Amino acid sequence: MRFLSSGPAAPPEADVCLIVEGCYPYVRGGVSTWVDWLIRGNPDLTFAVVAIVPGAGPREIRYALPDNVVAFSDLQLHTDFRSQPWQENARTEETEDVLADQLIALVRGGGLDTFARLVELVNDPARGLTLASLMASPLSWRVTCQMYERLMPHASFLHFFWAWRALFGGLFAVLKAPLPRAKVYHTISTGYAGLLAARAAHETGRPALITEHGIYTNERRVEILMAEWICDTVDKGISLSDERVDLRDIWMQIFDAHALICYQACSRIITLYEDNQRLQKALGAAPTRLAVVANGIDVESFAALPVAGPDQPPTMALIGRVVPIKDVKSYIEAAAILRRRMPDLRALVMGPTDEDPIYFEECLDLVRDLDLGETVVFTGSVKLVEYFSQVHIVVLTSLSEAQPLVILEAGAAGIPCVATDVGSCREILHGRSTEVPRLGEGGAVTPLVSPNDTAEAAERLLRDEALRRSQGEALRTRVRRYYASEDALAAYRETYAHYLAPGRAEATVAGS
User: Fold this and answer.
1) CA 287, CA 279: separation in Å to the nearest integer?
2) How far is CA 183 from CA 36, 47, 439, in A?
3) How many CB atoms lie within 10 A of CB 360?
């Protein structure tokens, strides 16, 4: 972990420590925009920010840190230990057995109690364990071998070894990193960020909170099931009773275990919409700690934008990062279907292209293969207010979303949307069950990975100006009524005030 500060003195204690993984301040859009909004919307509070990053590669800060950020640090999950000599520790055999026991218990859903014992074991001064000795020593080798024999001896040891280093290297990095001083710890996901918040709550006695946009474990599950680099080494055939586990099972079990630990440690478990709470409870979240705070946007920033007219070429836009979970390829295929019916179609892809260069190149190849070079345009990161007046509809083909800000922003500008049935997209476009009076549809909801359905829904809106205007205005009204930024900020101000109140600074993990 590296700290950035204005001088040699240690950063002051912050009111709130925000813990983020894989986003702010290095990735634009989405959750990063939300984090920036939250910090700037609470100017009377001070914040520390811990950005969890994969490794030591170069990174560019995409957001200027606000003045009320008093400490900023990276937590690097993976370090290259290949050039370092192996380290040995005293009492190796006893430590080996205890460490393997606790790690296996964690994988099998041991929860916060197991995690607390692991924190104390790894940071016990008498054992002298360093990150290097946990990852590059005879001890780490024997722990790996012991866990392999007890978890999946029927599968490939080589594949298990590299998975172990990836999964537990990140865990050990979280356990050994210095903790910023704060009165409240607020994580924006489960996973490694959630583990750091759980550790902070355990070690400091200060409250921990979580705001989940998407359900982290579900997003990781999609990635794990799609991952070609995870080898399947156990052939279960069609058996339903085969209890052997393979690498994909181990990966998913560990992320489920991380979620349970985080939920048990957090005093308040916030999400953006009610349907997420069903998944949180299934992963171990206590119903009494659950709360919903919908995302909010500055509706006035988009209210005065002109709406694209019928005299402009039919234009749709996917707004988001060019990464697999956004399923940009389905969008491109939908554009190919639609272009055959609407030759002057423009299909914009507005968002950063540098997060997954291999996937971006695959998207470019698909555009070339489908002869869409004059139709599909990758704009990179842009200011939406400069493009919305050219866009008739916004399209999302994502495999997973939470509460997409781009739909709210498009709605505030009066632009209807076509979105896959993920996260709160249906709730935003069609309204909550409790919406009175009913405001009408603000667009269409389509199945996942269905270019034909996406193309048909987009065509209906692009060809029918009256429908487009009607649905755009319905969405604009809904966003203004239920998703205003100030309402969301007020909810977080109240939450922070509750946990920062005198007498709550030393709240227990089991706090309300």
Assistant:
1) 11
2) 20, 10, 42
3) 19
Helix (H, G, I), strand (E, B) or coil at 218: helix
Q: Which amino acid is at 185?
A: Y
**At a CB cut-off of 8 Å and minimum separation 6, what does 504 contact?**
207, 498, 511
> What pTM value is reported for the model?
0.78
Alpha carbon of 264 to those of 112, 185, 192, 274, 510: distances in Å?
Answer: 6, 14, 15, 19, 8
Does the pLDDT value for residue 7 go beyond 70? Answer: no
Which H or E run includes 265?
helix 247-265
Q: Can you say whether the dihedral through the CA atoms of 116, 121, 125, 131 is positive or negative?
A: negative
Q: Name the burial class of residue 58, with classes exposed (0-12), middle (13-18) and buried (19+) by CB atoms within 10 angstroms of its CB.
A: exposed
Half-sphere exposure of 34 (CA within 13 A, CB side): 26
221, 254 in Cβ contact below 8 A?
Answer: no
Specify the pLDDT at position 86.
62
DSSP state, 297? Answer: B
- Six token digits for residue 446: 């389509």
Q: What is the pLDDT of residues 291-327, one digit of tens each?
A: 999 988 889 999 899 999 999 999 999 999 999 999 9
Cα(176)–Cα(130) distance, integer angstroms: 8
Q: Would strands 69-76 and 290-292 be described as parallel, antiparallel, or unpaired?
A: unpaired
Helices (H), 177-246: 191-204, 216-226
Residue 144 to residue 250: CA distance in whole angstroms = 14
